[in-house]
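Weekly structure sync, notes
Attendees: PL (lead), two postdocs, one rotation student
Agenda item 3: pending single-chain targets
PL asked that the sequence for the first pending target be pasted directly into the notes so everyone works from the same version. It is reproduced below exactly as submitted, 733 residues in total.
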Amino acid sequence: MATLVLTVVGTVLGGPIGAAIGALAGQAIDRNILFKPKSRQGPRLTELAVQTSSYGTPIPLQFGTMRVAGTVIWSTDLIESRSTSGGKGQPGVTNYSYSASFAVLLSGRAISGIGRIWADGKLLRGAAGDFKTSTGFRVHLGDEAQPVDPLIAAAEGNGLAPAHRGQAYAVFENFQLADFGNRLPSLTFEVIADPGPVAIGVIAEAVSSGRVDGRAVTQAVTGYSAYGDSVRGVLESLASISGAWFAPAGGRLVMRDSAVAGPVISDMGAQSRTLGSSASGGSPHLPRHGARRRRSVAAIDTVPQTVTVAHYDPARDYQTGVQRARRPGAGNRSERIELPAAIDGRVAKAIAARAIARAEAGRERREIALDWSALGIAPGQTVTLADAPGSWRVSGWSLEAMVLQLRLIRLDGGVGVETSASSGRVLASTDSLHGPTILHVFDAPVLDDAVLTTPRLLVAAAGESPGWRRAALLLSSDGGMRWTAAGETALPATLGVVASQVHWAPAALRDLTGSVDVVLAHDGMALAGADDAALDAGANLALLGDELIQFGMAEQHGARRWRLSRLLRGRRGTERAAGSQAVGDRFILIEPDTVKPIDIAVASIGRPLQLMASGIGDLTGPVAATIVPGGLSVRPPAPVHLHVQPTEEGMRITWVRRSRAGWRWIDGVDAPLIEEQEAYRLVISPPGGVPQALDMRESSFLISNEFALSGTMIDVRQRGFAGESLPGTLTLT
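Predicted structure, written out during the meeting:
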């Protein structure tokens, strides 16, 4: 008697490959090496969640598009950089920043490219290929001719750095760690191994190095990570997706599923190409001795009542998704299938439903007897019975006295299960482009009551897209011959351009009739109104051209267009710029966290300075701006309230000084002097005459009648340690 039996798998999660290997005893496939069972055989979803650097970690083979963590295979120590901020008269502050260079192994086979990258769960590289943190990045796709990475070669020495041919890996160079607590974050990568979905059978062939023929199984997944302790575990995981099994064929295994049609067996027990006929045109009869048929149906409670499929859901940025299918009726068994595959929720639920359908169909078993002419029917093959609907899988056969006894398990027919499923609430990382930098550098009075002894410039920057974060700054005072580091920009500012005509209005009264339209840089920016108390506390301060204003009302008139009204004009002594704005001039909302101060030398006042900003999105090069500092932060503001009082001797000119540290007028009497001494320069310009300049220490001057001519212009400037103020002017009439 000759007997060949394929053990029937009793659970949804069983081992469909083990019995097939047993049928190949003595053949080319070595069950003790290639398919050797271990205590832990298959992939697990958790293995893809955390980046590792452990020696001996299995290298996954990636298929389709998949999110994987990878393994750190090379790295440098943390690189420390120092920069000092603070200018003359201010304490210096030493700032430290850290970066690292490292390589991450992603796949044990070649890939097509890398999509998005996450760092600590947040997007590091967007779908457009833009990085959110500064780093040098390159990917080695894993072809057999790829060269050694130049950074690794430089660090390790010639001939000591491997090229990792046939394996895909990514290299980060000078990865800035400030956003991650000065440590290496946990990275996950959207690996694009093959374009489009990939068939399960193709994966099975690849992971078994061609020892499995998977052409017959065409069900596809978005992505799959073949990651486990043995090939056997990976193949069984693949088989659980479609309910496939493995059958011997010569010296190989063939992967099959219920979609593959098989021969028809007539009711007389003969194999035939068509129902009820043999190859010779007849139906050979069974020998009367030994012929038998048996049918058994297992109890319904042997079928799982609930099957849960855990998988990676592309709709959830490849985070773990769970779908369940449930059958009605008796029983309380449940099964869980863990798939290291990227599939959507609907497909995962269909897999769960089909697993139940297969288990329900598999309750029915049959044994039939055929004559020796049916020896071509092999274990693992699909057959159809003439007297029973559906398809059947041959789980084993025995041959005795020229009678072939087949053991059959009923299949579910391979019909797709129509299901609807939801991926649940998706908390995807925001993927906003960084965009090119918009840079503004301006000279303005001190925005609080601090008394500066060093001139200060203000820098505001943002991006053309909402994803912009910061940019590195360089400063040059010699026409770009030498550049010094100036730190980096502050948080993104709300800025744009003037979009309507700006009329003049006095600084001493609220402008309740005028308004100005501005267009912000992108849709992610917004403005808000403020009540009188908030305005009095300094809210909604903005630079409009060269004029500082405050606005109490902001109305949106388009995606980026806003109308500002209830205005306070000429704030902090900038009243001379009121009404001088043109369409296209700058608009900058000034907030403490979005404006960066840069201190410069007193000698830089009146000399051109260049500022250069370089952000992640500045792909065409740094953005530059030039300014000639006027020293408004250290010069006194212009005198105000110039008046003429006629006297017998002539005309007395009086004025009121202002202070660069007394804008709130706290005591209601006088502003503090701040300067070392009270001093003024008076310039008298008679019509057609030669101007005369006079220095004085009082806030009044008597002009004799011979100079008090109609049309004479009087300019008064207060003198400070860093220069004179802008003039307060008066014309005699």
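Discussion points:
- Confidence is low (pLDDT under 50) at residues 1-14, 24-34, 267-291.
- Residues 457 and 598 are 5 Å apart (CA to CA).
Action: rotation student to compare against the earlier draft before next sync.
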